[in-house]
Amino acid sequence: MIKEKVAVIGSGNWGTVVAKILGTNVVQQSGFEHEIKMWVFEEMIGERKLTDLINEKHENVKYLPGVSIPENVVAVPDVVEAAKGATILVIVIPHQFVNGVCDKLKGNVHPKVKAISLVKGFYTTESGIRPISHLIKEALKISVCTLSGANLANEIAQEKFSETTIGYKNRHEGKLFKRLFETKYFKVNIVDDVLGVELCGALKNVIAIGAGMIDGLKLGENTKAAIIRIGLLEMKKYIKMFYKGIKDETFFESCGIADVITTCYGGRNRKAAEAFIVTGKSFEQLEKELLNGQKLQGTLTAKEIYLVLHRKGLEKEFPLFTTVYRIVFEGLDPHKIVEDIV
Ligand SMILES: NC(=O)c1ccc[n+]([C@@H]2O[C@H](COP(=O)([O-])OP(=O)(O)OC[C@H]3O[C@@H](n4cnc5c(N)ncnc54)[C@H](O)[C@@H]3O)[C@@H](O)[C@H]2O)c1
Ligand SMILES: O=P(O)(O)OC[C@H](O)CO
Questions:
Q1: Which end of the chain lies in a sparser environment, N or C, as judged by fewer CB atoms within 10 Å?
Q2: Rounded to a whole number, what is the largest CA-CA distance in the chain?
Q3: Cα-atom radius of gyration of the chain, to the nearest Å?
Q4: CA 123 to CA 202: how far, in whole Å?
Q5: What is the CATH number of domain 203-339?
Q6: Architecture of the domain made up of 6-192
Q7: Strands 6-9 and 144-148: what pairing?
Q8: Catalytic center at which residues (predicted)?
């Protein structure tokens, strides 16, 4: 039997944790080649290349310092080289970079390759926004599953228990990915809903920006719970309004309600939004100051969603999404986040 060969496309905070999980699992599970190539967007750390440091220290000193990565994970600076011969692509990069990476991979992937997207966000085109899984599927002409959940990378790196959700169309692939990703501390549930899983992961980041603003305004836990509840309803309404075949049950998986909660309490989007209120600095500035190269997904997603709502005249039906956008991009008074949703 031909063994599956895994490549991890991405090596940020979550990408590196995922490489750690998979590097361990491919050795313990049957049917996988042991070496995993991990694509690294090359950068210099002082005088040294990040790829060289990762391969020497078996640690991503920039995006996941202090955590060991298995030695069978090999950092590669060329994305085509990283994907060469892989039958499984694990795509885990900030959403704004997926299109560029797909362009490079086009025509350069194994004929039997399949992908799983861990990306939380949308792809913007002139005519609107599209799910990232659709972009990957069409660019590379391959089948794509999705993985999303209440998954703060730094906690999973410490092997603290969490759940996640994999969305599949082909059950065989869903089961294969469950075998690849599941560990004692990372429990995978598979559902027949590729888009539902992915879209929850993208939209919860906008709710997290709202929750962070509530923290910054010091409005307390009841107000934050209201934002979470209203955000969850807007997330469901948006997904159901614009996409067909989404299952109600998906919203109760880890990728749904659980991810909304964890991001609103422990995520980077929440943290930056709180600082936005407290310091008055721009999100761009705060991303640089607070995240050391990691990327925020929620502000861009808020803008992308707002453009859809505005074009269709739906702002009043999505008051939280609309108000978050207006506070971030139009200078609206942050207190409006409460006034506008009640
Ligand atoms: N970090 C988490 O806790 C977490 C958990 C679940 C899902 N996610 C999602 O996974 C995706 C990846 O997140 P992450 O935390 O691994 O990344 P990250 O936020 O750490 O992003 C930094 C990564 O982007 C790369 N990068 C910078 N400029 C680039 C460019 N021009 N082209 C390509 N890559 C470039 C950097 O090299 C680095 O690897 C996101 O959609 C995120 O929402 C993150
Ligand atoms: O840190 P955030 O806000 O990008 O959220 C991280 C994960 O998506 C939580 O599941």
A1: N
A2: 62
A3: 19
A4: 11
A5: 1.10.1040.10
A6: 3-Layer(aba) Sandwich (3.40)
A7: unpaired
A8: 204 (proton acceptor)
Long-range contacts, 328-332 (Cβ 8 Å, 24+): 328/209, 328/276, 328/283, 328/299, 328/302, 328/303, 329/299, 329/302, 329/303
As to burial, measured by CB atoms within 10 angstroms (0-12 exposed, 13-18 middle, 19+ buried), residue 149 is: buried
- The tokens for 290 are 């607070």
Show the beta-strand stretches assigned E in 171-235: 186-191
Instruction: Identify the burial level of 66 via C-beta atoms within 10 angstroms of its C-beta, where 0-12 means exposed, 13-18 middle and 19 or more buried.
Output: exposed
Ligand 1 in reach of 25 Cβ (< 6 A): no
Joined together, the tokens standing for residue 191 give 């559902």
Question: Which one from 62, 114, 178, 204 is the annotated catalytic residue?
Answer: 204
User: 1 or 60: whose pLDDT is higher?
Assistant: 60
Pocket of ligand 2, candidates 259, 276, 283: which has the most ligand atoms within 8 Å of its Cβ, to mutate? 259
pLDDT digits (tens, 9 = 90+) for 30-89: 999 999 999 999 999 999 999 999 999 999 999 999 999 999 999 999 999 999 999 999
Q: Read off the pLDDT of residues 86-144 as tens digits, 9 standing for 90 and up.
A: 999 999 999 999 999 999 999 999 999 999 999 999 999 888 899 999 999 999 999 99
One-letter amino acid identity for 222? N
Closest by CA to 337, choosing from 233, 209, 203, 201, is: 209
Whole-prediction pTM: 0.98
State phi, psi for 41 to the nearest 5 degrees.
-70, 105
Residue in this structure with the two tokens 């990691």, named with its chain if needed: 294
